[in-house]
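Example 9 (inverse folding). The structure is encoded as follows.
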Protein backbone atom coordinates (compact mmCIF):
# COMPACT_ATOMS: atom_id res chain seq x y z
CA UNK A 1 0.00 0.00 0.00
CA UNK A 2 1.20 3.51 -0.77
CA UNK A 3 1.28 5.14 2.68
CA UNK A 4 1.10 8.62 1.12
CA UNK A 5 -2.34 7.88 -0.33
CA UNK A 6 -5.21 8.50 2.02
CA UNK A 7 -7.60 5.55 1.46
CA UNK A 8 -10.34 7.26 3.42
CA UNK A 9 -10.81 10.30 1.19
CA UNK A 10 -14.49 10.55 0.21
CA UNK A 11 -16.38 12.54 -2.43
CA UNK A 12 -19.60 12.85 -0.39
CA UNK A 13 -20.58 14.72 2.77
CA UNK A 14 -19.15 13.23 5.95
CA UNK A 15 -21.26 12.11 8.88
CA UNK A 16 -24.80 10.79 9.21
CA UNK A 17 -27.27 11.16 6.36
CA UNK A 18 -31.05 11.26 6.68
CA UNK A 19 -33.67 9.76 4.37
CA UNK A 20 -34.09 12.79 2.11
CA UNK A 21 -30.33 13.34 1.80
CA UNK A 22 -29.92 9.68 0.87
CA UNK A 23 -32.47 10.10 -1.94
CA UNK A 24 -30.49 13.04 -3.33
CA UNK A 25 -27.20 11.11 -3.12
CA UNK A 26 -28.81 8.21 -4.94
CA UNK A 27 -30.13 10.51 -7.68
CA UNK A 28 -26.63 11.98 -8.11
CA UNK A 29 -25.16 8.43 -8.09
CA UNK A 30 -22.95 9.32 -5.14
CA UNK A 31 -24.53 6.27 -3.47
CA UNK A 32 -24.75 3.06 -5.48
CA UNK A 33 -24.88 0.41 -2.73
CA UNK A 34 -26.62 0.10 0.62
CA UNK A 35 -25.34 -2.21 3.33
CA UNK A 36 -28.16 -3.31 5.63
CA UNK A 37 -26.52 -4.46 8.86
CA UNK A 38 -27.60 -6.25 12.04
CA UNK A 39 -25.25 -6.60 15.05
CA UNK A 40 -24.93 -10.33 15.75
CA UNK A 41 -24.40 -12.11 19.09
CA UNK A 42 -20.68 -11.37 18.91
CA UNK A 43 -20.99 -7.65 18.18
CA UNK A 44 -20.18 -7.94 14.47
CA UNK A 45 -22.10 -6.27 11.67
CA UNK A 46 -23.80 -8.91 9.52
CA UNK A 47 -26.18 -8.43 6.63
CA UNK A 48 -26.46 -7.84 2.88
CA UNK A 49 -25.13 -5.40 0.30
CA UNK A 50 -28.00 -4.14 -1.85
CA UNK A 51 -28.18 -2.20 -5.07
CA UNK A 52 -29.21 1.21 -3.76
CA UNK A 53 -31.97 1.96 -6.24
CA UNK A 54 -33.52 -1.50 -5.81
CA UNK A 55 -33.32 -1.20 -2.03
CA UNK A 56 -34.96 2.23 -1.87
CA UNK A 57 -37.71 1.31 -4.30
CA UNK A 58 -38.60 -2.12 -2.86
CA UNK A 59 -37.09 -2.70 0.58
CA UNK A 60 -37.56 0.37 2.74
CA UNK A 61 -40.25 -1.62 4.57
CA UNK A 62 -37.82 -4.41 5.29
CA UNK A 63 -35.61 -7.08 3.76
CA UNK A 64 -35.44 -10.76 4.63
CA UNK A 65 -32.39 -12.38 6.25
CA UNK A 66 -31.86 -15.87 7.63
CA UNK A 67 -32.59 -15.97 11.35
CA UNK A 68 -29.38 -17.88 11.96
CA UNK A 69 -27.43 -14.60 12.06
CA UNK A 70 -28.62 -14.39 15.68
CA UNK A 71 -27.80 -18.05 16.33
CA UNK A 72 -24.20 -18.78 15.36
CA UNK A 73 -20.80 -19.15 16.97
CA UNK A 74 -17.88 -16.92 15.97
CA UNK A 75 -17.19 -19.20 12.97
CA UNK A 76 -20.76 -18.68 11.69
CA UNK A 77 -21.67 -22.28 12.47
CA UNK A 78 -25.47 -22.49 12.80
CA UNK A 79 -26.36 -23.45 16.37
CA UNK A 80 -29.43 -25.59 16.87
CA UNK A 81 -32.30 -25.49 19.41
CA UNK A 82 -32.58 -21.77 19.99
CA UNK A 83 -36.14 -20.71 20.74
CA UNK A 84 -36.21 -18.24 17.86
CA UNK A 85 -34.65 -20.53 15.25
CA UNK A 86 -33.03 -23.88 14.63
CA UNK A 87 -33.24 -27.01 12.50
CA UNK A 88 -36.66 -27.88 13.88
CA UNK A 89 -37.84 -24.56 12.42
CA UNK A 90 -35.71 -24.83 9.29
CA UNK A 91 -33.67 -21.69 10.01
CA UNK A 92 -36.26 -19.53 8.28
CA UNK A 93 -36.07 -15.81 7.57
CA UNK A 94 -37.02 -12.82 9.61
CA UNK A 95 -37.69 -9.35 8.30
CA UNK A 96 -35.09 -6.66 8.98
CA UNK A 97 -36.55 -3.15 9.18
CA UNK A 98 -34.04 -0.44 8.13
CA UNK A 99 -33.62 2.81 10.05
CA UNK A 100 -33.32 5.21 7.14
CA UNK A 101 -33.08 8.26 9.39
CA UNK A 102 -29.61 7.24 10.58
CA UNK A 103 -27.51 6.35 7.55
CA UNK A 104 -23.72 6.21 7.66
CA UNK A 105 -21.38 6.62 4.70
CA UNK A 106 -18.53 4.11 4.53
CA UNK A 107 -15.34 5.98 3.62
CA UNK A 108 -13.39 2.83 2.70
CA UNK A 109 -16.15 1.82 0.25
CA UNK A 110 -16.92 4.87 -1.90
CA UNK A 111 -20.55 4.95 -2.90
CA UNK A 112 -21.71 2.71 -0.05
CA UNK A 113 -24.09 3.70 2.74
CA UNK A 114 -24.62 1.62 5.88
CA UNK A 115 -28.06 1.29 7.48
CA UNK A 116 -28.72 -0.42 10.82
CA UNK A 117 -31.66 -2.81 10.81
CA UNK A 118 -34.05 -4.25 13.42
CA UNK A 119 -35.07 -7.92 13.06
CA UNK A 120 -38.80 -8.49 13.55
CA UNK A 121 -41.09 -11.55 13.71
CA UNK A 122 -43.94 -12.25 11.28
CA UNK A 123 -46.29 -10.25 13.52
CA UNK A 124 -43.91 -7.22 13.24
CA UNK A 125 -42.82 -7.49 16.88
CA UNK A 126 -39.07 -7.01 17.43
CA UNK A 127 -36.91 -10.07 18.05
CA UNK A 128 -36.34 -9.71 21.78
CA UNK A 129 -32.92 -11.39 21.84
CA UNK A 130 -31.40 -9.19 19.12
CA UNK A 131 -28.56 -7.34 20.91
CA UNK A 132 -29.50 -3.86 19.75
CA UNK A 133 -33.17 -4.32 20.68
CA UNK A 134 -32.25 -5.88 24.01
CA UNK A 135 -30.30 -2.75 24.92
CA UNK A 136 -33.12 -0.48 23.72
CA UNK A 137 -35.51 -2.40 25.98
CA UNK A 138 -33.31 -1.88 29.03
CA UNK A 139 -32.83 1.82 28.23
CA UNK A 140 -36.62 2.23 28.02
CA UNK A 141 -37.06 0.64 31.46
CA UNK A 142 -34.63 3.09 32.99
CA UNK A 143 -36.27 5.93 31.07
CA UNK A 144 -39.56 5.05 32.76
CA UNK A 145 -37.84 5.78 36.08
CA UNK A 146 -36.96 9.24 34.80
CA UNK A 147 -33.36 8.67 33.70
CA UNK A 148 -31.46 8.82 30.42
CA UNK A 149 -28.13 7.04 30.07
CA UNK A 150 -25.08 8.68 28.54
CA UNK A 151 -22.09 6.55 27.64
CA UNK A 152 -18.48 6.97 26.65
CA UNK A 153 -16.66 3.92 25.25
CA UNK A 154 -13.00 3.08 25.84
CA UNK A 155 -11.55 -0.02 24.15
CA UNK A 156 -8.21 -1.76 23.80
CA UNK A 157 -7.22 -4.05 20.95
CA UNK A 158 -4.03 -5.55 19.55
CA UNK A 159 -2.68 -5.13 16.02
CA UNK A 160 -0.92 -8.16 14.54
CA UNK A 161 1.12 -8.69 11.40
CA UNK A 162 1.98 -12.02 9.80
CA UNK A 163 5.48 -13.21 10.75
CA UNK A 164 7.36 -16.33 9.59
CA UNK A 165 5.96 -18.29 12.54
CA UNK A 166 2.48 -16.80 12.42
CA UNK A 167 0.86 -13.60 13.77
CA UNK A 168 3.12 -11.28 15.79
CA UNK A 169 2.32 -7.92 17.43
CA UNK A 170 2.73 -4.98 15.05
CA UNK A 171 5.42 -3.54 17.34
CA UNK A 172 7.45 -5.44 19.92
CA UNK A 173 7.69 -3.09 22.90
CA UNK A 174 5.67 -1.27 25.55
CA UNK A 175 4.58 2.01 23.92
CA UNK A 176 2.23 3.12 26.69
CA UNK A 177 1.56 6.87 26.31
CA UNK A 178 4.26 7.06 23.63
CA UNK A 179 4.08 9.95 21.18
CA UNK A 180 6.69 8.55 18.82
CA UNK A 181 5.38 5.62 16.82
CA UNK A 182 6.73 3.58 13.90
CA UNK A 183 5.83 5.38 10.65
CA UNK A 184 3.40 2.70 9.47
CA UNK A 185 1.56 2.85 12.80
CA UNK A 186 1.36 6.65 12.64
CA UNK A 187 -0.08 6.34 9.13
CA UNK A 188 -2.57 3.70 10.25
CA UNK A 189 -3.80 5.81 13.18
CA UNK A 190 -4.08 8.88 10.96
CA UNK A 191 -6.16 7.04 8.37
CA UNK A 192 -8.30 5.40 11.03
CA UNK A 193 -9.04 8.82 12.54
CA UNK A 194 -9.96 10.22 9.14
CA UNK A 195 -12.21 7.26 8.41
CA UNK A 196 -14.04 7.69 11.71
CA UNK A 197 -14.51 11.40 11.08
CA UNK A 198 -15.79 10.77 7.55
CA UNK A 199 -18.28 8.26 8.92
CA UNK A 200 -19.51 10.81 11.47
CA UNK A 201 -18.00 8.98 14.44
CA UNK A 202 -16.35 11.33 16.88
CA UNK A 203 -13.37 10.04 18.82
CA UNK A 204 -11.42 11.62 21.65
CA UNK A 205 -7.99 10.03 21.49
CA UNK A 206 -5.78 7.24 20.22
CA UNK A 207 -3.15 5.83 22.54
CA UNK A 208 -0.65 3.03 22.22
CA UNK A 209 -0.73 0.78 25.27
CA UNK A 210 1.48 -1.26 27.59
CA UNK A 211 1.46 -4.54 25.63
CA UNK A 212 3.19 -5.11 22.33
CA UNK A 213 0.93 -4.08 19.45
CA UNK A 214 -1.79 -2.79 21.77
CA UNK A 215 -3.86 0.35 21.08
CA UNK A 216 -6.59 2.17 22.96
CA UNK A 217 -9.34 4.33 21.47
CA UNK A 218 -11.66 6.51 23.53
CA UNK A 219 -14.96 7.92 22.28
CA UNK A 220 -16.87 10.93 23.62
CA UNK A 221 -19.93 10.84 25.83
CA UNK A 222 -23.33 10.71 24.22
CA UNK A 223 -26.62 8.92 23.74
CA UNK A 224 -26.24 5.29 24.81
CA UNK A 225 -27.60 3.53 21.71
CA UNK A 226 -25.75 5.89 19.38
CA UNK A 227 -22.51 5.28 21.28
CA UNK A 228 -22.92 1.53 20.78
CA UNK A 229 -23.74 1.97 17.08
CA UNK A 230 -20.64 4.11 16.64
CA UNK A 231 -18.47 1.60 18.46
CA UNK A 232 -19.80 -1.31 16.38
CA UNK A 233 -19.14 0.58 13.16
CA UNK A 234 -15.66 1.44 14.49
CA UNK A 235 -15.02 -2.30 14.98
CA UNK A 236 -15.97 -2.85 11.35
CA UNK A 237 -13.87 0.05 10.04
CA UNK A 238 -10.74 -0.70 12.04
CA UNK A 239 -10.71 -4.25 10.70
CA UNK A 240 -11.07 -3.05 7.12
CA UNK A 241 -8.38 -0.37 7.41
CA UNK A 242 -5.95 -2.62 9.28
CA UNK A 243 -6.20 -5.14 6.45
CA UNK A 244 -5.06 -2.46 3.99
CA UNK A 245 -1.86 -2.18 6.02
CA UNK A 246 -1.32 -5.93 6.18
CA UNK A 247 -2.45 -6.06 9.81
CA UNK A 248 -5.23 -7.71 11.79
CA UNK A 249 -7.07 -5.89 14.60
CA UNK A 250 -7.74 -8.46 17.36
CA UNK A 251 -10.50 -7.87 19.90
CA UNK A 252 -9.88 -10.70 22.34
CA UNK A 253 -10.07 -10.21 26.08
CA UNK A 254 -6.74 -12.04 26.47
CA UNK A 255 -5.01 -12.18 23.08
CA UNK A 256 -1.85 -13.59 24.67
CA UNK A 257 -0.91 -14.98 28.05
CA UNK A 258 -0.42 -12.03 30.39
CA UNK A 259 -2.08 -9.51 28.02
CA UNK A 260 -5.58 -8.16 28.65
CA UNK A 261 -7.70 -5.87 26.47
CA UNK A 262 -10.69 -4.20 28.09
CA UNK A 263 -13.93 -2.60 26.93
CA UNK A 264 -14.57 0.02 29.61
CA UNK A 265 -17.94 1.75 29.54
CA UNK A 266 -18.21 5.17 31.23
CA UNK A 267 -21.80 5.71 32.36
CA UNK A 268 -23.81 8.55 33.80
CA UNK A 269 -27.52 9.12 34.36
CA UNK A 270 -29.32 12.32 33.44
CA UNK A 271 -32.62 13.44 34.92
CA UNK A 272 -34.50 16.25 33.14
CA UNK A 273 -31.35 17.27 31.26
CA UNK A 274 -29.29 17.52 34.46
CA UNK A 275 -26.53 15.11 35.52
CA UNK A 276 -27.83 12.89 38.33
CA UNK A 277 -24.30 11.82 39.35
CA UNK A 278 -22.84 15.32 39.79
CA UNK A 279 -20.77 15.79 42.95
CA UNK A 280 -17.38 17.05 44.05
CA UNK A 281 -14.53 14.62 44.35
CA UNK A 282 -14.08 13.54 47.94
CA UNK A 283 -17.78 13.74 48.73
CA UNK A 284 -20.04 10.72 49.02
CA UNK A 285 -21.92 9.90 45.81
CA UNK A 286 -25.42 11.36 45.40
CA UNK A 287 -28.35 8.95 45.92
CA UNK A 288 -28.79 8.05 42.23
CA UNK A 289 -25.09 7.19 41.86
CA UNK A 290 -25.04 5.23 45.12
CA UNK A 291 -28.10 3.20 44.13
CA UNK A 292 -26.74 2.64 40.62
CA UNK A 293 -23.44 1.42 42.04
CA UNK A 294 -25.25 -0.86 44.47
CA UNK A 295 -27.28 -2.28 41.61
CA UNK A 296 -24.15 -2.99 39.57
CA UNK A 297 -22.39 -4.74 42.44
CA UNK A 298 -25.53 -6.67 43.37
CA UNK A 299 -26.79 -7.79 39.94
CA UNK A 300 -23.73 -8.13 37.70
CA UNK A 301 -22.61 -11.42 39.30
CA UNK A 302 -25.85 -12.85 37.85
CA UNK A 303 -25.28 -11.56 34.29
CA UNK A 304 -21.66 -12.45 33.45
CA UNK A 305 -22.24 -14.16 30.05
CA UNK A 306 -23.50 -10.83 28.68
CA UNK A 307 -20.24 -8.96 29.39
CA UNK A 308 -17.79 -11.91 29.57
CA UNK A 309 -19.22 -14.21 26.88
CA UNK A 310 -16.32 -16.50 25.95
CA UNK A 311 -13.92 -18.91 27.60
CA UNK A 312 -11.16 -16.43 26.79
CA UNK A 313 -12.96 -13.61 28.66
CA UNK A 314 -11.98 -15.02 32.06
CA UNK A 315 -8.26 -15.21 31.25
CA UNK A 316 -8.13 -11.40 31.43
CA UNK A 317 -9.12 -11.30 35.11
CA UNK A 318 -5.70 -11.45 36.79
CA UNK A 319 -4.46 -9.77 40.01
CA UNK A 320 -2.75 -6.40 39.59
CA UNK A 321 -3.46 -6.39 35.85
CA UNK A 322 -5.79 -3.35 35.76
CA UNK A 323 -8.62 -5.83 35.09
CA UNK A 324 -10.83 -6.56 38.11
CA UNK A 325 -10.94 -9.85 39.98
CA UNK A 326 -13.73 -8.99 42.46
CA UNK A 327 -17.15 -7.30 42.35
CA UNK A 328 -16.18 -4.12 44.17
CA UNK A 329 -16.12 -0.37 43.68
CA UNK A 330 -13.88 2.52 44.64
CA UNK A 331 -13.08 6.17 44.10
CA UNK A 332 -10.71 6.58 41.14
CA UNK A 333 -9.54 2.99 41.68
CA UNK A 334 -8.54 1.11 38.51
CA UNK A 335 -8.36 -2.20 40.35
CA UNK A 336 -12.11 -2.21 41.05
CA UNK A 337 -14.90 -3.53 38.87
CA UNK A 338 -16.70 -0.16 39.17
CA UNK A 339 -14.67 3.03 39.38
CA UNK A 340 -16.20 6.35 40.46
CA UNK A 341 -14.37 9.00 38.50
CA UNK A 342 -14.75 12.45 36.96
CA UNK A 343 -15.44 15.84 38.53
CA UNK A 344 -18.60 17.79 39.35
CA UNK A 345 -21.05 17.51 36.43
CA UNK A 346 -18.65 15.08 34.75
CA UNK A 347 -18.72 12.58 37.62
CA UNK A 348 -19.61 9.12 36.36
CA UNK A 349 -19.10 5.37 36.76
CA UNK A 350 -16.55 3.44 34.77
CA UNK A 351 -17.48 -0.25 34.60
CA UNK A 352 -14.31 -2.24 33.90
CA UNK A 353 -15.70 -5.79 33.71
CA UNK A 354 -16.11 -6.29 29.96
CA UNK A 355 -13.19 -7.33 27.80
CA UNK A 356 -12.62 -6.43 24.18
CA UNK A 357 -14.44 -9.59 23.13
CA UNK A 358 -17.74 -8.37 24.61
CA UNK A 359 -20.69 -7.32 22.49
CA UNK A 360 -21.09 -3.68 23.52
CA UNK A 361 -24.90 -3.78 23.28
CA UNK A 362 -25.10 -6.80 25.57
CA UNK A 363 -22.57 -5.46 28.08
CA UNK A 364 -24.42 -2.15 28.34
CA UNK A 365 -27.76 -3.96 28.56
CA UNK A 366 -26.43 -5.89 31.57
CA UNK A 367 -25.12 -2.70 33.18
CA UNK A 368 -28.33 -0.77 32.52
CA UNK A 369 -30.52 -3.59 33.86
CA UNK A 370 -28.38 -3.67 37.00
CA UNK A 371 -28.62 0.09 37.49
CA UNK A 372 -32.40 -0.05 37.04
CA UNK A 373 -32.48 -2.79 39.69
CA UNK A 374 -30.48 -0.65 42.12
CA UNK A 375 -32.64 2.43 41.65
CA UNK A 376 -35.98 0.63 41.65
CA UNK A 377 -35.13 -1.31 44.81
CA UNK A 378 -33.32 1.67 46.41
CA UNK A 379 -30.36 -0.57 47.22
CA UNK A 380 -27.74 0.55 49.72
CA UNK A 381 -24.19 0.51 48.45
CA UNK A 382 -21.55 -1.32 50.46
CA UNK A 383 -18.44 0.64 51.57
CA UNK A 384 -15.96 1.64 48.88
CA UNK A 385 -12.72 -0.27 48.57
CA UNK A 386 -9.96 1.93 49.99
CA UNK A 387 -7.01 -0.46 49.69
CA UNK A 388 -5.70 -3.12 47.33
CA UNK A 389 -8.82 -4.06 45.36
CA UNK A 390 -7.38 -7.49 44.60
CA UNK A 391 -7.18 -8.28 48.33
CA UNK A 392 -10.65 -6.92 49.14
CA UNK A 393 -12.13 -9.78 51.17
CA UNK A 394 -15.38 -7.86 51.71
CA UNK A 395 -16.38 -8.42 48.07
CA UNK A 396 -17.09 -11.59 46.14
CA UNK A 397 -14.63 -12.80 43.50
CA UNK A 398 -15.35 -12.91 39.79
CA UNK A 399 -15.98 -16.33 38.33
CA UNK A 400 -12.86 -18.28 37.38
CA UNK A 401 -14.31 -19.47 34.07
CA UNK A 402 -17.29 -19.36 31.75
CA UNK A 403 -18.67 -22.68 33.00
CA UNK A 404 -19.23 -21.35 36.51
CA UNK A 405 -20.57 -18.02 35.23
CA UNK A 406 -23.01 -19.85 32.95
CA UNK A 407 -24.29 -22.13 35.70
CA UNK A 408 -25.04 -19.10 37.88
CA UNK A 409 -26.59 -17.12 35.00
CA UNK A 410 -29.08 -19.67 33.71
CA UNK A 411 -30.40 -20.56 37.17
CA UNK A 412 -30.44 -17.00 38.53
CA UNK A 413 -33.76 -15.56 39.67
CA UNK A 414 -32.24 -12.08 39.29
CA UNK A 415 -31.18 -12.71 35.67
CA UNK A 416 -34.67 -13.98 34.78
CA UNK A 417 -36.28 -11.01 36.53
CA UNK A 418 -34.10 -8.38 34.83
CA UNK A 419 -33.80 -9.89 31.34
CA UNK A 420 -36.67 -12.35 30.92
CA UNK A 421 -36.48 -16.11 30.57
CA UNK A 422 -36.25 -16.04 26.76
CA UNK A 423 -33.18 -13.79 26.81
CA UNK A 424 -31.48 -15.84 29.54
CA UNK A 425 -32.14 -19.09 27.68
CA UNK A 426 -30.83 -17.66 24.37
CA UNK A 427 -27.54 -16.34 25.76
CA UNK A 428 -27.02 -19.33 28.02
CA UNK A 429 -27.26 -21.51 24.92
CA UNK A 430 -24.70 -19.31 23.11
CA UNK A 431 -22.29 -19.51 26.07
CA UNK A 432 -22.69 -23.28 26.27
CA UNK A 433 -21.80 -23.56 22.59
CA UNK A 434 -18.54 -21.69 23.21
CA UNK A 435 -17.73 -23.97 26.12
CA UNK A 436 -18.50 -27.09 24.10
CA UNK A 437 -16.19 -25.95 21.30
CA UNK A 438 -13.27 -25.43 23.70
CA UNK A 439 -13.86 -28.74 25.46
CA UNK A 440 -13.29 -30.64 22.22
CA UNK A 441 -10.17 -28.80 21.00
CA UNK A 442 -6.59 -29.91 21.59
CA UNK A 443 -4.44 -26.80 21.95
CA UNK A 444 -0.81 -26.10 21.11
CA UNK A 445 -0.05 -25.71 24.81
CA UNK A 446 -1.45 -29.17 25.55
CA UNK A 447 0.79 -30.62 22.86
CA UNK A 448 3.81 -28.72 24.19
CA UNK A 449 3.26 -30.14 27.67
CA UNK A 450 2.25 -33.62 26.53
CA UNK A 451 4.81 -34.37 23.85
CA UNK A 452 8.11 -35.09 25.60
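The amino acid assigned to each position is listed next.
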Amino acid sequence: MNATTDPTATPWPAGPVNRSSLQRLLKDRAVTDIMLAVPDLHGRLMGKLFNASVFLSRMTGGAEMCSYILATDVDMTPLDTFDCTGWDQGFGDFLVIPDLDQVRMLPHRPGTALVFGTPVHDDASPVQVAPRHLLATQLDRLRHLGYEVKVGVEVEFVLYTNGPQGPVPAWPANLDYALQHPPEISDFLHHLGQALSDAGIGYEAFKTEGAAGQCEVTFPYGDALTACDHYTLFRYLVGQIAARYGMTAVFMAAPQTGVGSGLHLHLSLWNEHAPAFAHRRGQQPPPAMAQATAGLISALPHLAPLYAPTANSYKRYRPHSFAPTRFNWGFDHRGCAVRVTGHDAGAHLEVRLAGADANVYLALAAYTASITHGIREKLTVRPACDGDAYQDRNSIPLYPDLAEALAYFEHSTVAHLLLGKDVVRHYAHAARADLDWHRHQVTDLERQRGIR
